[in-house]
Amino acid sequence: MKTFMDDQFLLNSETAVQLYEKFAKPMPIIDYHCHLDPKAIYENKPFSNLTEVWLYGDHYKWRAMRANGIAEAYVTGGEGVSDYDRFLAYARTVPMAIGNPLYHWSHLELRRLFGIEEIINENNAPAIWEKANKLFEGKGLTPQELVRVSNVRVVCTTDDPADSLDYHIKLMEEDRHGFQVRPSFRPDKALEINRDTFLPWIGRLQEACGYEVTDYKRLLQALKERVAFFHQTGCLLSDHAIDTVMHADATEEQAAAIYAKALRGEAVSLEEEAQYKTFTLVYLSRLYADHGWAMQLHIHAHRNNNSAMMRSLGPDTGYDSINTGQLAGPLVRLLDSMEANGGLPRTILYSLNASDNDVLASIIGSFQDGTIPGKIQLGSAWWFNDTIDGMLAQMKSLANMGLISRFVGMLTDSRSFLSYPRHEYFRRILCNLLGDWVESGQVPADMELLGTIVEGICYSNAEQYFRFGSEAASINVQAVVAQ
Ligand SMILES: O=C(O)[C@@H](O)[C@H](O)[C@H](O)C(=O)CO
């Protein structure tokens, strides 16, 4: 029987061990999609204890605690509940989470970032708390240190087009934290015309661009200006939550009429919503292509299902699930419309529904245009699929129908500064998959070729694909500050 989480954790052959130790492990990390707070990175305030850094923002852990019968006050905090109480509640939950990636991630995080090797449970929780918190004494443990010690080269945060990006600009001006912090352009609120967030967001956009967005032409102009501002501030990716894939051909005049209806507070039909979203997304995709950005489409999430908890805690608090819905037809038409409008940008398609993997892996092959390797990507296993089974399923779909060698690899997609061991987890799973292929005679034991492929998936594919290291990606701080 293998020892739990030893040096060959998840590596079941000598080939897998070699691929991981020699090629995967040394690679730095590019976290091209996460939800870390740029303000927290800039202010760099030391964390006060293990609960703050581990439990304050991580809804993966919150879901597990609720499923374990832990009262909400001990999950997201409440009257008279200390951080130590919350830590003990999570320590009670970890042993019950075997089979869930949280069980592995939690142990990897304590081992890699705190040097704590204990198997987490309620009995040794006090000792773990004491050991970990020693690192928070004195000058303490800060966000920037956790990013640096995790060998992260690039962090791409998720930002609204109306955001000032002040903290990104301050980080650029200082530029002594040892890694890149780049915004990502996430215009969901500009697209969700039927949600109650739409009109308030138009107000925020008007403040950001300094003029009234009284008609659709001005909306498109404002979005174009915000894309330019984001680009100047180092943005090289956009990101969209496409919970339901819609496509309906529309002219600019039709989209403008729908926008005007929404501004008047009139109901917009589902067909009109599809027309508005199609025209606006196609417009945005051309802007992305013109700026050399990558476009991420995060498909089939079902968000904020619990109305009472949405009112109490707000969005992204662990009450989401996997969505279903029509995919192939509307997505192919959407991508084809983007292609017809001057060219698809670099595009990454993720679905929260793993049963979509093969559909997406086949669709990306319809839009590779030979300009760059892996231009259209099947995105890494995302959120509920960020598991051993989910990662293997995504990589096998991509390998079976596309080129896994051109995959831009893993991201953390996290709100916690402790989540970087998720890359180790992914890299071990990747190396074991390739190792299995070699050991079973499906792939020659060409360690030079396999090593190059592993290094590409772990780091260099992403660096080349997103162009983080290129001249074009350099950030003109003076131009941004002068604005
Ligand atoms: O980007 C998304 O839509 C999701 O990643 C969402 O933010 C979710 O809350 C998450 O963080 C899953 O890891």
From TrEMBL:
Its EC number is 5.3.1.12. SUPFAM superfamilies: Metallo-dependent hydrolases. GO terms for molecular function: isomerase activity. It comes from the Bacteria. Pfam families: UxaC. Pathway: Carbohydrate metabolism; pentose and glucuronate interconversion. Keywords: Isomerase. It catalyses: aldehydo-D-galacturonate = keto-D-tagaturonate; D-glucuronate = D-fructuronate. The keyword Isomerase applies. PANTHER family: URONATE ISOMERASE (PTHR30068:SF4). Belongs to the metallo-dependent hydrolases superfamily. Uronate isomerase family. This is Uronate isomerase. It comes from Paenibacillus glycanilyticus.
